[in-house]
Write a structure and sequence with these properties.
This protein has about 260 residues and is α/β, with parallel strands linked by helices. The chain is built from 10 helices and 10 strands. The chain has a 6-stranded mixed β-sheet with strand order 6-7-8-3-9-10, with helices on both faces. The chain has a 4-stranded antiparallel β-sheet with strand order 2-1-4-5, covered by helices on one side. α7 links the parallel β7 and β8. α3 packs parallel to α6 and α6 runs parallel beside α7. About 45% of the residues are buried.
């Protein structure tokens, strides 16, 4: 049984048209699933519909065998699904510790214990706990944003373009963080500008086109598929986590 199962999901308006137009996808417990596709495909909108930031106009979103479509975002978070947006994902004028406290307000009884665990997992956050979030580097802010989401001990973490705007070195470090989180038992579904890297650290992937998954399958199979490479990956495949000094050379997509 899937941890998350989406069927016929629609929503997100662009003028008079819907951005997501009947999406079907699933994420199993402990899995990493990538969402890739061209600019305008609806990747970010899909994640926001699942997380409750946008209200679906149709379809179902079953999480842990409950239909959460249309639930308010705090209720979805309480159910065990956390979302990290691409932008405005931390409070810049507040300290690292205060950001984590804000993330723990839904389950305040466990906030102190979870903060201690996150400081142990991310020593950088412990060292900078009194620093304003705006003083962190881009990669450090993304780690803080994920830590805020982890304050609710989610079973599933949705990440919208987590490496957008980061240097190659910072992006590589963040990919390592994502893999470590997954190895600790957290399922992850994410959209990424760097499709090749996303595929290389994911178990499965969906290729979104005009608001619908047009292809799905094992991430390695999609990365090697000539049609997918030609249309969406610049016609070539490359290994993930190469030296950060070499650069990626990959096609960069904007989120929708």
């Amino acid at each position: 049984m899937s941890l998350l199962e989406i069927s016929g999901l629609r929503g997100g308006l662009c003028g008079a048209d819907e951005i997501v137009k009947g999406a079907d996808l699933a994420v199993a417990a402990g899995e990493i699933v990538a969402l890739i596709g061209p600019n305008g495909a609806g990747k970010s909108t899909l994640l926001k519909l699942v997380a409750g930031l946008l209200r679906p106009s149709g379809g179902s979103v079953r999480f842990k065998d409950r239909d959460i479509a249309g639930w308010a975002a705090p209720d979805i978070s309480r159910a065990g699904l956390s979302f990290v947006p691409q932008e405005r994902n931390v409070f810049g004028t507040m300290s690292v510790a205060e950001n984590l406290e804000m993330g723990g307000y839904i389950d305040g009884a466990h906030a102190r214990q979870r903060m201690a665990g996150l400081y142990e997992r991310f020593p950088m956050l412990a060292d900078k706990r009194r620093a304003a979030a705006r003083t962190l580097s881009g990669g450090q802010r993304q780690i803080l944003a994920m830590a805020v989401a982890l304050m609710n001990a989610p079973d599933l973490l949705l990440l919208d373009e987590p490496t957008a705007g980061l240097s190659p070195r910072a992006a590589e470090e963040l990919f390592g963080t994502i893999l470590a989180l997954n190895q600790s038992g957290v399922a992850i579904s994410w959209s990424s500008r760097n499709a090749l890297e996303a595929l290389s650290v994911s178990a499965r992937a969906y290729v979104l086109v005009q608001g619908r998954p047009e292809r799905e399958g094992g991430a390695a199979d999609l990365a090697a598929d000539p049609t997918v490479r030609d249309l969406f990956l610049g016609g070539k495949a490359a290994p993930m986590l190469k030296s950060s000094d070499e650069g990626t050379g990959d096609v960069i997509w904007d989120a929708t």
